Amino acid sequence: MGAFTFGMESGTIAGFQAMESWLKDFGYYDEALQEWNIHTNIQLAVGAMSLVGAVLGSISSGPIGTKLGRRPGLIAIALTAIIGVILQVVHASLALMLIGRLFQGAAIGFASNFVPVYQSEVAPTKYRGILVSLYQLGVNIGGVIGTCINQGTHNMETRWAYQIPLLASLFFPAILILVTFVLPESPRWLLSVDRIDDARISLRRLRGKEYPEFQIEQDIKDIAEHIAIEHQLEKSSSYSDLFKGTDRRRTMIVCFVLFFQILSGITFVNSYGTYFFEASGIENAFLITIVGALCQLAGLLFLYPSLSLMGRRTILLCGAVAEVVCWFIVAIVAVAAPGAPEAATCLVSFICLFSFFFTWSWGAAGWIVASEMCSNKLRSKAQSLGTVINWTTSLVVAAISPYLINTSAANLGGKVGFIWGSLTLVGLIWTYFYLPETDRRSLEDLDEIFMQV
């Protein structure tokens, strides 16, 4: 439910900026173009506020999860999402809309931290990888649902055009609250705060009545030992250790993978895609956005069999090559045939292909590589730093994108592909020369590789 909440928010907001009813409330009428538009600074604020909220939510997730537990974190996802929607629905006010976006962004930040952590801590070992990977699948499915609702309402002439998608996005947070009340708390967190009896009860609920009692006790013992080891590692390390010795290269890899992930242009596509299509003169922009969301979902599904056939590095390299080709074709055709129907068809086709290849490679495999690169004692710190860089880069991209595509600003249209294609090309070159393969290598093997560098 937390992943669906994340996906729904991302899937709906991009469409709002292309809805005439939304533009009437928050935009202006452009006499020169004879159409409704949005001021660039407002477009920037709308895109950025959610990401600011996500950064704040991510930063505060650690203290909340450590002190209060995982279940309160799940409830925080739902409550902040609900508050964000209510603020945007009660009155057509720019201030309320931006504050609401901030709350929805905080829900995204909470979801990106609490959901995978809870899944990994309550799932049996043999199902852990599958269940954690379902988080990204839920985000993509939520995005498809959001874009489909936009398609059904965007032609309405009243505020219901954007308020119906907002109200519909309350469904998943409401279900999450109800479900959380019956979910057991994470046994791992309970043991970390010395609530051993509660941890035993929670683990029994998770494993079922048929699970042997001696195995429950063994699991409790194993979890407690791992917690003790992690606490010792945390005490013996600091953030400065991330940039010492062989860990410096590991840290740089984590940060650059998550940095180039965003510079591929995915934040631009997800945040401003529908507006970009309409500004480029493409009909059925909302329908095209659905196709793009489905392409992202297909890319994720295609990744699962690919991981067993191809190495992580190979997937990232192939994905980057495909993304560069897609962006440069979009840009070159936009220069060669501006305003031509063929250029519009090309733009739609290759951005949908980009969406597929991104999710197949950097979108999902990028996080896998980032998690595998860290040494045990610095894993949480390196992941935290990488996540902050990822969200911060998204914020910067969201801030500059309106000035690139708004019809009252640079209005680059398809030529924006030169920017994202060039940045992705830099990421491709970095990957080729700097990123080692992690597939089928143990953590000890990786330690040896970095010791030799």
Automatic annotation (TrEMBL):
Entry coiled-coil feature ranges: none
SUPFAM superfamilies: MFS general substrate transporter
One Gene Ontology MF term: carbohydrate:proton symporter activity
Domain Major facilitator superfamily (MFS) profile residues, every copy: 1-439
Cellular component, GO, one term: membrane
Topology of this chain in the membrane: Multi-pass membrane protein
Keywords on record: Membrane, Transmembrane, Transmembrane helix, Transport
Sequence similarity: Belongs to the major facilitator superfamily. Sugar transporter (TC 2.A.1.1) family.
Principal subcellular localisation of the protein: membrane
Transmembrane stretches, start-end: 42-62, 74-99, 160-183, 252-273, 285-303, 315-335, 347-370, 382-405, 417-435
Designated name of the protein: Major facilitator superfamily (MFS) profile domain-containing protein
Pfam families on file: Sugar_tr
Subcellular location: Membrane
InterPro entries attached to this UniProt entry: MFS_dom, MFS_sugar_transport-like, MFS_Sugar_Transporters, MFS_trans_sf, Sugar/inositol_transpt, Sugar_transporter_CS
Domain of life: Eukaryota
PROSITE patterns associated with the record: MFS, SUGAR_TRANSPORT_2
